[in-house]
Amino acid sequence: MPPDSYTRRLLYKIAHVYYIEGPSQKQIGLRFGLSRIKVSRMLKQARDLKIVQITLSPGNERTDRLEQQIEAIYGLHEAVVVSIEPENTEKDILRVLGSAAAECLVRSIQGNETIAITWGHTILAAVDSLPTANWPDVRIVQSLGGLSQPDSRINAADLAQRTARALGANLTLLSAPGIVETKDIRDALLHDPQIKHTLALAAKANLALVGIGVPAPTSQSLVEVFKKSDLERLATIQAAGDIGLQFFDNNGLPIKDEIHDRIVGLTITQYKAIPRVIAVASGADKIRAIRAAMKGKIINVLITDEVTAKKLVSSE
After folding, report:
1. Which contiguous run of DSSP H or E holds residue 207?
2. How many C-beta atoms surround the C-beta of residue 17 within 10 A?
3. Nearest Cα to 101, choosing from 120, 83, 124, 85?
4. Which of 110, 157, 190, 299 could be a cystine partner for 279, CB 3.0 to 4.6 Å?
5. Does domain 5-48 have CATH number 1.25.40.10?
6. Are 294 and 316 in contact (CB under 8 A)?
7. What is the three-class DSSP state of 79?
8. Which residues of 29-61 are buried (b: 16+ CB within 10 A; e: fewer)?
9. What whole-number distance in Å separates Cα of residue 69 and Cα of residue 22?
10. Better-scored residue on pLDDT, 102 or 85
11. Is-contact 272 240, C-beta < 8 A?
């Protein structure tokens, strides 16, 4: 039965106040002598009767469509695709990706989370874009040991410290090298109480911010970390990519290789158990790795550029 003219006028008035003036439903209830629940029901009724008709205006139809396609194809919680121009350099793209990743991370924080941080140039770009905040109940945890890098800014320890400083958060560092010479050394380190505690804390994180690497001679970061023989062997067994130096195949499954017996950090299985894993990655050389990470459900949020996004969509 359609509402009488009085009720329809009241529905319009309440909807106008709510959507145009912006007070809360509780405030509207106090103003019109209604309960909050009653206001909520009346707003729904106004929508059902087409008194309220909502139109969404996309910020960028091109990237919005790509985000929807990637989320649908790979089952992601969220895809964020940044638009780029032909004249943009790699440095420009990295800066835009970092800004988008920082925004995504910050809006994911409620105020009491544990956040695991890895390493790499894309994570550096995200940390560079973090705003200053004050979250004293948030904890940043280094999820991969330290690496010998000429550019110490991309090291997990430095990135974790800078993230904690920017967000006004607590910090737990992993006081161990990220890769060691033998399994025995790694096993001994894992029995250290402090290292064991840090990795257990990282494994229980609510959020993780990760990059995606490619085990190839063209990967400057990995060339500086691994021996040439390691990278050649990983290529032979067709490793698609890595997250935190944990390598996976085309389906996102951990590969079987002795390299993992020498890594001090979270495993692929542990990353998959983290509720929200935000990956920042782009580039033609990373298409296979990004696709594999999504297929394997290692990550559930992807920050990438529109050129990479188009290839991820068209390849499926």
Report:
1. strand 207-211
2. 16
3. 124
4. 299
5. no
6. no
7. strand
8. beeeebeeeebeebbebbeeeebbeeeeeeeee
9. 33
10. 102
11. no
Cβ atoms of residues 8 and 52 within 8 Å: no
Report which secondary-structure segment, H or E, holds 303.
strand 301-305
Q: State which amino acid sits at residue 219.
A: S
The answer to whether residues 316 and 109 touch, using CB atoms and an 8 Å cutoff, is no
For residue 3, the tally of other CB atoms under 10 A from its CB is 15
107-134 burial by CB neighbour count: b if 16+ within 10 A, else e?
A: ebbeeebbbbbbbbbbbbbbbbbbeeee
User: Alpha-carbon distance 278 to 276, whole Å?
Assistant: 6
Q: Can you tell me the mean pLDDT for 185-194? A: 97
Q: Would you state the pLDDT for residue 226?
A: 82
| pLDDT score for 1 | 66
How far is the first Cα of the chain from the last one, in angstroms, to the nearest whole number? 49
Give the Cα separation of 256 and 237 in Å (integer): 9
- What type of residue is 172? T
- Helix axis angle for 25-32 and 5-16, nearest 10°, is 140
Backbone angles phi, psi at 46, to 5 degrees: -65, -35
> Using alpha carbons only, what angle is made at residue 190 by residues 188 and 193, rounded to the nearest 5 degrees?
105
Structural domain spans, the chain: 5-48, 61-314
| Mean pLDDT for the stretch of residues 175-200 | 96
Residue in this structure with the two tokens 């500086």, named with its chain if needed? 224
pTM of the predicted structure, to 2 decimals: 0.82
Q: Which two tokens stand for residue 208?
A: 């993780």
The residues pairing with 243 across neighbouring beta strands, listed in sequence order, are: 246
- Matching residue, tokens 């559930």: 300
**Strand duo 139-142 + 170-172: pairing:** parallel
The values of phi and psi at residue 55, to 5°, are -120, 125
Locate 29 and state its tokens: 């209830």
For residues 91, 95, 96, 99, the Cα torsion angle rounded to the nearest 10 degrees is: 170
As its CATH architecture, domain 61-314 has 3-Layer(aba) Sandwich (3.40)
Name the nearest CA neighbour of 174 among 139, 146, 204, 140: 146
